[in-house]
Design goal:
Blueprint: H1 7-29, H2 40-47, H3 64-84
Helix pairs in contact: 1-3
């Protein structure tokens, strides 16, 4: 399905997906070990929903620039959610 995204947009989405994967691995290693055996789509759905992704701990929510980064990250997570979530 061709959506005509600019190369920079695709690069940004790929960066956000990398951040999401890193955050999932970090959370599993820091205590969410019960999720370790889940299938990949179910694991992603534990951390992503139709509104947001996980709050990234290294971004300061009081910094307006970093808040914009979190919002862009959440937008990528929403797109991923609509792609992998089962139809309701």
């Amino acid at each position: 399905m061709e959506q005509g995204f600019a190369a920079k947009t695709i690069k940004n989405h790929m960066h956000h997906l990398h951040l999401l994967g890193s955050e999932i691995v970090r959370q599993i290693n820091d205590g969410d070990e019960s999720h370790r055996k889940l299938p990949s789509d179910a694991l992603i759905l534990k951390y992503v929903d139709n509104e947001t992704g996980p709050l990234l701990p290294f971004w300061d929510p009081n910094d307006s620039t970093e808040e914009a980064y979190q919002k862009a990250f959440d937008a990528t997570c929403r797109k991923l959610f609509t792609f992998i979530a089962p139809p309701f």
